[in-house]
Amino acid sequence: MRTIQFCVLLLAALFACVVSAAPERDSTYMDKLLKSSSINPGLIRLTDKNFGDVISAPRDYAVVVLLTAESPSMGCQLCRQFAPDYHLVAQSWSKEHPKSGDGLYFAVLDFVDGQRTFQSLGLKTAPNVWLYGPTVGENAGPAAPIVYEIHGVVDMPGSVARFIESHVPGVGITIYKPRDYSKIGQAVTGLVAIGLFIRYLYPILKPFFESRTLWAGISLVAILMFTSGHMFNNIRHTPYVAGNKEGGVSYVAPGFQQQYGFETQVVAVLYAFLAFGAISLSIKTPRIKDSTRQLLSVLTWATIIWCLFSALMFVFRMKNPGYPLSLPPMTK
């Protein structure tokens, strides 16, 4: 009898020793790995030794594992391209959960550190993203991992985040993209260049910048381009001319909702000459001291403006025969 009791006590002691020696597979164990990790923030470095402990069931946490081969000797270009996107997701989660993983952890197993694991899993390609969900608790699921498809994704960080959110209830990941200092550097460089330009070249170009005639000409050209429909042509990619039902060529598009490139140029030229005529009548003609020459100038420019307006009305009536206005001598 004493022998049986001794054997039972011995087995109980051995069982207690085995249980106490078994690795913890809960959030506390994962938090310890996360704090002792030597790679990027929010990432746990896995090896052949701890991979099994991390993914073994039962587990009350979710862990996303990147199985990759980033070593240059492996020649995996996709691995090196995907790694920054995966690290960004892990860092974004770590930023909102700085003290612990709060039930979600990100890990990386490189082929250099886990050759035996790669062989046991039968992996022949990389990278691979596997999600091991919790097997205990209210969100418990199967112990087998869920595989993420990497190929054909445009927004990789956002896609990985949505993949995790769809399989781990209660998880929301906000991607915090790092500030692009290169754009700030470009902006600063541009401002410095502009400052140097103003400092050294402005005295030379000052007469041009302060020329009222130059700015008036630039403004007039811009106004003519916009009012004649040049921007409409660029946006709609309108044809220069088009064929008509009789087999000929149409230079003016019917209706006021469309136009051709040729009529845009014609209208722009008419507007330009009309503007030049108005400027001449208001600025040039009053400066003529000879009254006879001044009268001739007024009559000449008035006649030119009359004819040009008549041509402009004629174009409008070609576009829409119902246009109510006309101006002789070019009437329909």
Give a structural overview.
The protein has helices at 2-21, 27-35, 51-55, 77-96, 115-121, 156-167, 181-209, 212-228, 230-236, 261-284, 291-319, and strands at residues 43-45, 62-68, 104-110, 128-132, 146-148, 242-243, 249-250. The N and C termini lie far apart (129 Å). With 332 residues, the chain is α/β, with parallel strands linked by helices. The longest helix has 29 residues, at 181-209. The protein has a five-stranded mixed beta sheet, with helices on both faces. A two-stranded antiparallel ribbon has the order 6-7. The radius of gyration is 39 Å and the shape is elongated. It folds into three domains: 22-167, Glutaredoxin; 181-208; 211-319. A hairpin with a 5-residue loop joins strand 6 (242-243) and strand 7 (249-250). The relative contact order is 0.07. It contains eleven helices and seven strands. Pfam families: OST3_OST6. Residues 1-21 form the signal peptide. The chain crosses the membrane at residues 184-202, 214-232, 266-283, 295-316. Its main location: endoplasmic reticulum. It is a multi-pass membrane protein.
Short note summarizing the structure:
Helices cover 54% and strands 9% of the residues.
List key phrases describing it:
332 residues, endoplasmic reticulum, two-stranded antiparallel sheet, alpha/beta, membrane, 9% strand, OligosaccharylTrfase_OST3/OST6, Glutaredoxin, 7 strands, single chain, transmembrane, 5-stranded mixed beta sheet, 3 domains
What structural class do helix, strand and pairing data support? alpha/beta
Percent of residues in β-strands: 5-15%
* CATH class group of the largest domain: Alpha Beta
Task: State the shape.
Answer: elongated
Q: What's the quaternary structure here?
A: single chain
Q: Helical stretch count?
A: 11
Strand order of the largest sheet: 1-3-2-4-5
Q: Provide the CATH architecture of the largest domain.
A: 3-Layer(aba) Sandwich
State the domain count. 3
Low-confidence stretches: 4-24
Question: Largest beta sheet, briefly?
Answer: 5 strands, mixed
Please give the number of β-strands. 7
User: Percent helix among the residues?
Assistant: 40-55%
Taking Cα atoms only, what radius of gyration do you get, to the nearest Å? 39 Å
Transmembrane segments: 184-202, 214-232, 266-283, 295-316
Family: Belongs to the OST3/OST6 family.
Keywords: Endoplasmic reticulum, Membrane, Signal, Transmembrane, Transmembrane helix
Pfam families: OST3_OST6 (PF04756)
